[in-house]
Structure formats: structure tokens, C-alpha cells
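Exercise 7. Predict the joint structure of the components listed below.
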Amino acid sequence: MFVKKRSALLVLLLLSSGAAFAQKKPVAKAPAKQPAAGVSAAVLAAGKAVYTQNCLSCHQADGGGVDGLNPPLSKTDYVLGDKPRLINVLVNGLRGVDIDGEPYHNAMPAQTHLTDQQMADVLTFVRNSFGNKASAVTVGEVKAVRAAGKK
Amino acid sequence: MNNQLSRPFLLAAALVGSLGLYSLTTRPAVVAPDADNAGLKLPAGFGALVVAETGARARHLAVTPQGTIYVKLNRPKDGKGILALKPGAGGKATVTGGFGSYGGTGIYAKGGYLYASSDEDVYRYQLDAKGEVTNPAQPEKIISGLLNRGEHESKSIVLDNAGNLYVNVGAYSNSCQEKDREKGSMGRPGCPILDSAGGIWQFRADKANQTYGTGTRFATGLRNVVGLDWNAQNNQLFVMQHGRDQLHDIFPALYDTKQSAELPAECLYALTKGANAGWPYLYYDPVKKQKILAPEYGGDGKKLADAKYLDPAVAYPAHTAPDGLLFYTGTMFPAKYRNGAFIAFHGSWNRAPEPQKGYYVVFQPFQNGKPSGPWEVFADNFAGSAEKVASGRADHKPCGLAQGPDGSLYVSDDKAGTIYRIVYNQK
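Solution:
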């Protein structure tokens, strides 16, 4: 776990200068040119479709979120770090938690209408878009969190 | 902020101002717009300048009759939740200090006091003859314990001319669903949020240690109000409501993304005691010009809501987030602006994937205390470009409005912390 976090941090540092540059662009960003190993174009396309339908209105086309309301999905440990914690945001929603020291006032609703496959796809897409690059989220990992149930 | 006391002070300020400037320059003490009008697009004859860059999340602001500017910060900067700015040469100002360790939105100056709010409490500070706060570290806490559940948490404030203070307590919800913002979740019957939030509460402005429970619920059925002002012509409270979001996300079978971007209107309401604007049971459709039953309560996008609820006074484009409202009582601007309303639209996020909108200050004409005629965009390009409007990645987001003693219009920006001043120079 410690090593994983270290590597995620390293990725974050490597990407941060490029991401800061790209942040000025208003257009929706395509997935990173080189997604993490084992992430297929088909999964990214499926994940993008789920994102557009369920996530985009709050987190925005560029994943940058909305100041003070909806957190950004780029350059954050919540997205790049611990996968069960990330999956749990979709399973149980999130509210009243500061992200990287910033408060965000809108409630993140649970997305339990999504299938395990859709959750895995959209999280894999988010972890490999908006300047992010991190390993895929598998259906098995989603199933495990959902089986653990509501907090 | 309205200033009834301004004329003698204005004269004094003008005299002091010219004396101060005399040593620096032989030119008269005029307020000089920036060469680029601070980046703003304005009607002919108007100019703008950057008064100061605070680098902080500048929410509402107040200007005293002597020209001192107080800015309420959303989060304290260097431990100061309120910044004090003293006027300087050419109409600019300098941050000279700060006080109040709490973040918040509301600030209002009237009758020798400065009132300011955190997201739970309202304080007041005494102003001396120079318009300076005499007790920055020991304000009087006049109201405590206002409900704050994280969503729609800001507590905007305004006073009437009879010693009452009005404060918004926003609903901690988008549309009173069983599960806030969750797809398909229906409305809670007899929305219980309205007992303690989703309205405007009235307190005494001069009484210490009032608690939430001792206030009067003045008006209800208002999801979240950030901009509000007292209209002295009609002796009436006007408020701008932030309309509900995410019709498509929550009810995709009833609303497509385009409808979701254009519904519902952001509404101006003229309130009387006991008014009920109908949130969460309805929203206002600006195209049909009707109150529509909310889908959470059985609506289908067409069914009308109960007619008993208050109609808006004016409807504005959806989701543009009106954060500041000011009735202009000055004489600097041309006559058509007098007693009309300026509205600061912070700008949208919830029109996505459609292009975003707002990031401007609107002028709404009024006659005899009632809206009269179409509104117009008055000050535009806070965002910096059309592309930055469309993407929502605005450079500046207008939030608060205040009137200076000379009739200048001040605008605060809670994105970059710029304080703007708009003046009219044409004779």
C-alpha cells in the first residue's frame, strides 16, 4: 500500500506541470495518450460514456470540478490513491469531506444505479483522464466494495 | 449598500481627497478608469478600474460614507475574515488591515454599524465618524446558531429602515429529495427542511444575543438566496433565488440536457411577510412563464404547480447564480439607473454539457419600486473571454455589489479577489 501511494505520488508529480499547462484549455480532454498498462481503449470509451451521462454536469468536461461546490478529479489523491476508498464514493456517496484541504459544499450522490461494470469503467476512465494515469479499477474490486455494503 | 448619510460626508471626502492629491499632482481629484476599464465591457460613458487585488475569496462588500471598503472573505486570509481598504489616489484603495477570524459571505453597513456574518452567526461592529471600526476584536454577537449543514451555507444579510435585519438560511438540499441529488429519488413529503431553512429569517438589528429560534421566519419556499436588498421606494425586501439543478441527471426520462441547462429560471422575488415561493414543490419555467410542479413531487415537466405560491417578479437565465443584488440610489449614473437594481451573476456550472453562462452584472430597470422593462447586461467580460464563459473557467466571478458615497458601483470577485469600481464620467 505504501509503495503504491508512493508511485501514485510520483505519477502525480510527473504529470503536474503538464496538467497545469493543459488546465487553461476549455475543451474536454481526451484520455492520457498512454493510459496505464492493461487499460484498453474499449474500457476508456465505455467509461467516458458513463462519465458523460452521470458525472459531467458536476465535475465538468475537463474534470476540473467547480470551485467550492464539486471537487476536481485531477491531481487528487482521492482519485489516484486507494481504490476501495474511491469505489466507495460511488457506492455510498460523499458529503462534508475536505479534498486536499478545500471544502466542497454539494453532496456527491451515491451512484448505485450503475452496474459493477459501469463503475469499473468510469473509475478507470477517470484515473486515466484529465492528466491522470493510474491502474484500472476491476469489476472484482467494485464487487468487493459493494459486497461490504453500506457504511 | 445604500447610503442616506452620504452627502455631507461626500463633500468632506471630496475636500480631503483634493487636499491629499494636491501634493501629488495638479490634476483634479477624479476617479480615473483604468486604460482597459479593468477588462470589463461597459455601456458608453462608463469606465472601470481595479480598486485593489485582495488575492482572497471576496464575497460581499460594504462601503462606508467615508469611502472605507470592508470585504467579507469566504475563508479567512492570514487569520482575517474581513479586509479593510482605505481609499487612495485616483479612486483606488489599499488593504490596510483586517479583523474577524471567521469566513462567511454577508456584510452590510448602515446607521453607524458594520454587520457581518459567518455561516452560523451575525456580528456587528461600531463605526466611528471616520467610518472605521472601533471594536474589531470585540464585536457584538447579535445572532447565533443559524443552521449550517454544509450545502447553501452562506448567510447573506440586509437591513430595512425600521431596525430589522434579514438573513438567508439556505436549504441544505437541491430539491428536498429523500437522497439529495440521487437519480430518481423522490421528494420528502411536506419537505421538513422548510421548518428550519429554505427561507429568509428576520431579527432585530440592535439586539445582542438573539438565537436562531427567536427569529421570525419572514418568507419561505426559497431554496437559496445569496443576493438580497431592501427597496426603499417600495419599502420591500427583494431577493434573488438560486434555482434547483440537475433536472436531467435526476430525471433523465423527463428532461434532456438542453432542457436541464435552460430550466429553471433564476428568479427575483418581491417578498412580503409570510410569502412562500414554493421550493421544493415547483420551479419556474422561463419559456412557458409558468410555475411547474417539480418532478420530485409528481411533475412531468408540464403539470402546473399550485397557483397559491408567489410568482417571481422577474426571471433570468437558468443557473447563472445571482450572488449580489443592489438597488442603486446614487446620482453619478444617468437617471435611468436610479432606484433600479444591479444583479451580480456569479456564473453557471450546472448547464454542462451545454456552454456555461453568466459572469456578468445585469441592470434591471425599476419604476416606483417595481421591475419595469427588460433587463440588460451592464458589465460583462469578468470571465476574460467567450471561451472562458463557455467552459466555466472564468478569470473572475462577480459576487458582491456596493454603492460608494459618490455613486460609484463596487463589485467584488470571489475567484481572484479583484475589487472593481465602475464610474460614469460622461456629462
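Discussion. The longest strand of chain B covers residues 69-77.
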